[in-house]
Amino acid sequence: MEVKQEAGAPEKIKPPTKLEDSGELEIRIKKYLRGDGANLEALQDKKLRGQLTVREKLYGKSAEAAAKAEKWLMPSEGGFLEAEGIEKTWRIRQESIAREVDISSSRNQYDIVLPDLGPYTLDFTSSGRYMAAAGRKGHLAVVDMKNLSLIKEIQVRETVRDVVFLHNELFFAAAQKKYPYIYNRDGIELHCLKEHGAVLKLQFLKNHFLLASINKFGQLHYQDVTTGGMVGNFRTGLGRTDVMQVNPFNGVVALGHSGGTVTMWKPTSSAPLVKMLCHRGPVAALAFHPNGHIMATSGKERKIKIWDLRKFEVLQTLPGHANTLDFSHKGLLAAATGSFVQISGNFSESQSYSRYMTHSMAKGYQIKKLLFRPYEDVLGIAHSMGWSSILIPGSGEPNFDSWVANPFETSKQRREKEVRSLLDKLPPETIMLDPSKIGTMKPPSRKQKPTKQERESEMEAAVAAVKDMPIKKKTKGRSKPSKSAKKKQDIIVRTKRPFLEQQMKEEEALSRKKQKASEEAELPKSLQRFARKKAT
Amino acid sequence: MKVKVISRSTDEFTRERSQDLQRVFRNFDPNLRTQEKAVEYVRALNAAKLDKIFARPFIGAMDGHVDSVSCMAKNPNYLKGIFSGSMDGDIRLWDVASRRTVCQFPGHQGPVRGLAVSTDGQILVSCGIDSTVRLWNVPVATLGESDGTHENSAKPLAVYVWKNAFWAVDHQWDGELFATAGAQVDIWNQNRSQPISSFEWGTDTVISLKFNPGEPNVLATSGSDRSITLYDLRMSSPTRKIIMRTKTNAISWNPMEPMNFTAANEDCNCYSYDARKLEEAKCVHKDHVSAVMDIDYSPTGREFVTGSYDRTVRIFQYNGGHSREVYHTKRMQRSQPISSFQWGTDTVIAGIFNPGERNVLATSGSERSVTLYDLHMSSPTGKIIMGVI
Q1: Most confident segment among A464-468, B11-15, B138-142
Q2: Does B143 touch chain A (CB under 8 A)?
Q3: Taking the CB of residue A147, how many other CB atoms lie within 10 A of it?
Q4: How is residue B134 annotated by DSSP?
Q5: Which member of A82, A108, A408 has the closest CB to residue B13?
Q6: pLDDT reading at A292 higher than 80
Q7: Which of A36, A94, B103, B206 is most buried per CB count within 10 Å?
Q8: Residue B355: is the preceding peptide bond cis (ω within 30°)?
Q9: Contact flag B1-A104 (C-beta cutoff 8 Å)
């Protein structure tokens, strides 16, 4: 078994060939261009066309600069796991991985056993530095993952069903027996959110500062945590469910129901955006890929389906149970059932997921939640006896952006980031299935009313079409010429009728409007303020 | 097997000493940033709101005139000084920085209708209802003048009397000629006491005129027969005339694109024309609700300012669109109409002056003072008290 250590000097540096270089760069540039350029040929205005061409060139240059920076300036490289010979990657066990990697990484593999306090659930902050763990029997803990030190733990002496961090590690919300509560990092209870009711699952929308919850009666609540106002509460109408996920790409909340349907919601409408029938049995788990276009759902009928959200079609069906699903930043899908975890990835050119790694825990551990740690090659497993963490090489994003999420944040940076993210807080109306619609032109909605000429020509065309049709000649003396002429007239009148009716309606509306206007004009000046005003 | 896991050492990613700057790492991947367009929209909206919150355009007012101010002129070589003429014949030179009168030019017997400064900054030409054109020497600014405790009054260099009242005057760029508008357009030389030539097309009065900055022999005028006429001094008769639906009160040429001019019209719109193609207006600037009285272009040629009878001053972009800013105060008034014409404001852009390198707009109207505004509404005027948000 060959071992590649990253800490030593690089052994073989092969300069890439020119051809490889340009092809790869092209792909990268495409990623940064964020779509196609504008079609400038259709513009008549030469000055505007000149200005826009210059701007498009600048976009191209900035995309190229970003692609080059990505290639040469990134400080870290991603992880990988390659099997050699007849070895298969899914047979490799965590112990063998621990032997190959350095000490600081092998510290990320551990099991924390807390058997008394019930099945655990956990949540990470967006930088991956802090973790909140909640045991069902009331144990709440906030842990600093870098030093593996416990910041605060409290016992609330009530059932806790879910825990979620708010915008940073200072605040977290716990879904307790009757209502969800918001706590400080020091364990001080800050708020009791009575309107939500007995919540089963909580989710936090980071860009909008909205806390979404689904409760025992199937009611969905959205609350703005900056102002405290309730933005929306809806009855889903589909019963009790505890499968809820947020799509990070567009901020839409997806619920999985016991009828096998998945519904997607936004805070400004009381009807779901999308309702799709995914499984034959109840939906057991749901997960979204970070790019927002791929969703994985698992049903109780032992199928895991991978959906394309742009076309709402199944991309792939995998066999197997999954009580919990999660996607990593790099697109690896982790599924767990009982005490068995399976990680799949799409490594080939086609979009199909295949087995990558597996891990079995001690029999009797019931895995409740899987969560990949952001910016690390670590998978956090929360189960009935506590929580564990295992190494999955290649699952995390190696290069973080300090302005987006910084695992090495100081308190000053955290405060600045909080203020800036509050300034950039998005209003709840920006949540939509396709977030790129913002800033586009509204398409012309109503057709222009057809002009008089158009209407007349339409009528003539209809009449001409009908005129040429031959009338059936009846036998036994019933086809007199006078009768057939009358019938022809009738047919023509019948085709003209809808057009004439519409005309009459419009004329009536016009005359009514004129009457109203003249009525108001007749009023003396002192009484004008009592005239009926048009509703705006 | 080959395996590698992400491992970050704290030393590489944090600073070594507390005097160092914090380390910043960037990853420009679009997947890390969700809903970029919505965030940009919110940021643009917040920036516009903050701009409006911090808008303090009024800088000051220069008082001194007894009667309403009817016209203004600026010296292109010395932007610290503005000339203003009032309805009682009083012409003053103001120092914008100290907001005091530097020099007075008494002499006119009635309202001063037009003021123009020659391009070299030496001669000031003024014309009025008393059918006289007066030429004055512009006093050279010395250091001792900025305290303004003594107000000099100057004697005219020359007084030319002619047959009828004058409505406007403008001086040629880089030349010795100036033109007056009245019953007809008269072209004068500074040294002659009679006009060297005059143009006439029709029998109506010519209300305003402006020389082209790029082509010194071309002149645009507007008449009370709702027309805009273009003249070339090298030819013996006027060149082009267009007749609009309503009267044009003032014209201004774009200093950066000298073939374009904008006309301020009585029907609340401003029309931008290309002088070579007068069949249709290049752009119609619509925003005022009452007659536009005066117009002037910024030296950059990118925007122009208009004053109107509805007591507002608006700044428009040169190539179209609604006005970018509106200035209006309670103090701005319009006076009663005198015979058949009405007053609004007469606007001039004074240009850059210290301190702070602000772009300043000077306007005057029937409120008897020359008011100064900052062209960038929300630029900081003094020390920033609040921290950067």
Answers
A1: B11-15
A2: no
A3: 9
A4: E
A5: A408
A6: yes
A7: B206
A8: yes
A9: no
Q: Chain A closest CA to B190's CA: distance in Å?
A: 42
Is A410 found in the same domain as A339? yes
Cα–Cα distance for residue pair B100/B79, rounded to 1 Å: 15
For residues A417 and A470, membership in a common domain is answered with: no
- The arithmetic mean of pLDDT across residues B335-351, rounded, is 29
Q: Is residue A162 part of a domain?
A: yes
- In this prediction, residues B186-197 reach a mean pLDDT of 91
- Measured between alpha carbons, how far is residue A69 from residues A28, A37, A402, B12 in Å? 10, 22, 15, 19
Contacts of B46 in chain A (CB under 8 A): 423
**Contact (CB<8Å) B1/A87:** yes
> In the prediction, which pLDDT does B309 show?
83
- Are B1 and A92 an interchain contact pair (Cβ–Cβ within 8 Å)? yes
Measured CA distances, A333 to A94, A294, A399, B179 (Å): 18, 11, 20, 83
Asked whether B239 and B277 are in contact (CB, 8 A), the reply is: no
Residue A396 inside a domain? The answer is: yes
- ipTM confidence: 0.78
Q: What CATH number is attached to the domain comprising A215?
A: 2.130.10.10
Are B287 and B314 in contact, with CB atoms under 8 Å apart?
A: yes
The verdict on residue A39 lying in a domain is no
Size of interface A-B (CB pairs under 8 A): 148
DSSP, collapsed to helix, strand or coil, labels residue A441 as coil
Check B28 against A407: CB less than 8 A apart. Answer: no
B9 touches chain A (CB under 8 A): yes
Q: By the 8 A CB rule, do B119 and B111 touch?
A: no
- For residue A532, the model assigns a pLDDT of 73
Pair A355, A483 in one domain: no
The larger pLDDT score, comparing residue A282 to residue B373, is at A282
Pairwise CB contact (< 8 Å): B2 & A4:
yes
Structure tokens at B73: 């002129």
CB contact under 8 Å between B3 and A100, yes or no, is yes
State mean pLDDT over A29-58: 87
Chain A residues in contact with B36 (beta carbon < 8 A) = 34
Q: What residues in A contact B26, CB-CB < 8 Å?
A: 69, 401-403
CB B232 within 8 A of CB B246: no
- Average of pLDDT values for B223-241? 90
Chain-chain contact of A207 with B41 (C-beta, under 8 angstroms): no
Query: Is A519 inside a domain boundary?
Result: no
Name the pLDDT band for B356 (thresholds 50, 70, 90): very low
Q: How far is B50 from chain A (nearest CA, A)?
A: 12
Residues in contact with A164: Cβ distance below 8 Å, sequence separation at least 6, in sequence order: A123, A132, A172, A173, A202, A203, A204, A211
- Which residue did the predictor score with more confidence, B230 or B345? B230
SS (H, E, C) A305-365: EEEECCCCEEEEEEECCCCEEEECCCCCEEEEECCEEEEEECCCCCCCCEEEEEEECCCCC
Q: pLDDT of B60-107, one tens digit each?
A: 888 888 888 888 888 777 777 788 888 888 899 888 778 888 889 988
Distances (CA, A) of B174 to A442, B140, B157, B181, B213: 52, 19, 20, 20, 9
Domain of residue A401 covers 89-437
The nearest CA of chain B is from the CA of A520 a distance in Å of 25
Contact B26 A101 (CB under 8 A): no
Binary contact (A2, B2; C-beta < 8 A): yes
A338 and A232 part of one domain: yes
CB contact under 8 A, A424 and B39: yes
* Confidence tier at B202 by pLDDT (50, 70, 90): confident
Partner residue facing B6 (CB), from A66, A398, A423: A398
Query: How far is A80 from chain B, CA to nearest CA, in Å?
Result: 5
Q: How far is A195 from chain B (nearest CA, A)?
A: 29
Q: At what angle do helices A452-467 and A481-522 cross, to 10 degrees?
A: 160
> How many folded domains does chain A comprise?
3
Beta bridge pairs of residue A120: A135
